[in-house]
Amino acid sequence: MSKKHGKHLPGHSQDGSVTDGPDRHQAARARAPSTAVWAGAADAIAGTVPAALGSHRQIPILAAPGIVAVEPGTRIDLSAVDADADGGLDKLWAKDALGQERERISALQERLYAERARSLLLVFQAIDTGGKDGTIRAVLKGVNPQGCTVSSFKVPSSDELDHDFLWRYHAKTPGRGMIGVFNRSHYEDVLVVRVKGLVPDAVWQGRYRLINDFERLLTESGTVVIKFFLHISKDEQKKRLEARIADPEKHWKFDPADLVERKSWDAYQQAFSDALSQCSSPHAPWLVVPANHKWFRNYVIARTIADTLEAMDPRFPKAAKGIADLKVPD
Ligand code: ADP
């Protein structure tokens, strides 16, 4: 893959070989990537996909080392994943590396936007105080706002409740050329809805299959889906809630209802474990991100996005013939 598609970190080459410096994450590169498939056929008929893209149908979701990708068909036990993990990385190094990953994302986004053939959907889920807002701010800083939409999903409106549960999410999926960000997502309908008993058990249980079908529809229509679960420990949540109470500038973030929700910690962990296990598919795998350390979380997520975008290999459309010879009239 050409280096002009983005800057690489020292020691990190796209074919997995070691380059000019140590890559502390190199070892985990050997893991077989998950694949997302996009169907170019319908797009080719519409004539909107550059012919060169025909060979780029298998899109690997390249989880950065330190992230735990849930193997499709297996069960993830979240209590066995160390939320405190930092991959042995140095904090200052990771902050600098984050800046480089952001530059890669920004350069690749320009190509994705110009190509206008496919899209990228980033899904963020976490328990309260898990860091969704902070991650989105840190990782997507520098992205052209015209090429990005962020959708936050709250308690559904009565109009939304009058439709099937996926309706409001489908309406916000990114169009061609766009990066879409879901701050909470269709997974709320098997998480909070389950924990609070908002629908009968049989209803939320049937949703795993519908979610898998929905994500297959998206990926086969040209949307690459990366799903991040920000995994924090119960102690870390306590610290973050206390920090919000102690700091007047953070009061706006504090909702007394969070204290009530905290009592359901175990029920939420169970619901997350089930959702991640039931809905990790080869085309849209779940990625569990150790998230107690914000700097580690931000770096590995940014790198995953940059690497996956690079694997998509978005290309500028071919220029019209003879454009270089054109003269702009005085
Ligand atoms: P956030 O915590 O994401 O910053 P809010 O504090 O406004 O934003 O919380 C949004 C609330 O909406 C959460 O309590 C979440 O559980 C709830 N919510 C989101 N989706 C649904 C849903 N489908 N059904 C019920 N509640 C939902």
Written account of the structure:
- By secondary structure, this protein is α/β, with parallel strands linked by helices.
- It has a single domain, classed as Rossmann fold (3-Layer(aba) Sandwich), CATH 3.40.50.300.
- Helix content is 38%, strand content 13%.
- It has helices at 41-46, 91-115, 132-140, 158-161, 167-170, 192-195, 201-220, 234-246, 257-262, 265-278, 294-312; strands at residues 34-37, 58-61, 68-69, 119-126, 148-152, 179-183, 223-231, 286-290.
- It has a 6-stranded mixed sheet with strand order 3-8-7-4-6-5, with helices on both faces.
- α2 (91-115) packs parallel to α11.
- It is globular.
- Adenosine-5'-diphosphate binds next to α6.
Q: Notable features of this structure?
A:
Rossmann fold, six-stranded mixed β-sheet, 8 strands, binds adenosine-5'-diphosphate, 330 residues, two-stranded antiparallel ribbon, alpha/beta
Record the strand order, biggest sheet. 3-8-7-4-6-5
| Structural class determined from secondary elements | alpha/beta
C-alpha Rg (nearest Å): 21 Å
> CATH architecture, please?
3-Layer(aba) Sandwich
Strand content: 5-15%
CATH fold-level assignment: Rossmann fold
What is the residue-mean pLDDT, rounded to a whole number? 87
Helix segment tally: 11
Q: What ligand species are in this complex?
A: adenosine-5'-diphosphate
Spatial gap, N to C terminus: 41 Å
CATH superfamily: P-loop containing nucleotide triphosphate hydrolases
Helix coverage percent: 25-40%
Q: Stretches where pLDDT falls below 50 for ≥5 residues?
A: 1-22, 26-34, 36-56
Order of SSEs, N→C?
Answer: EHEEHEHEHHEHHEHHHEH
Biggest sheet character: 6 strands, mixed
Q: Which CATH class? A: Alpha Beta
**Domain count:** 1
General form: globular
Task: Please give the number of β-strands.
Answer: 8
Protein name: PPK2 family polyphosphate:nucleotide phosphotransferase
Biased composition (Basic residues): 1-10
Catalytic activity: [phosphate](n) + ATP = [phosphate](n+1) + ADP
GO biological process, one term: ATP biosynthetic process
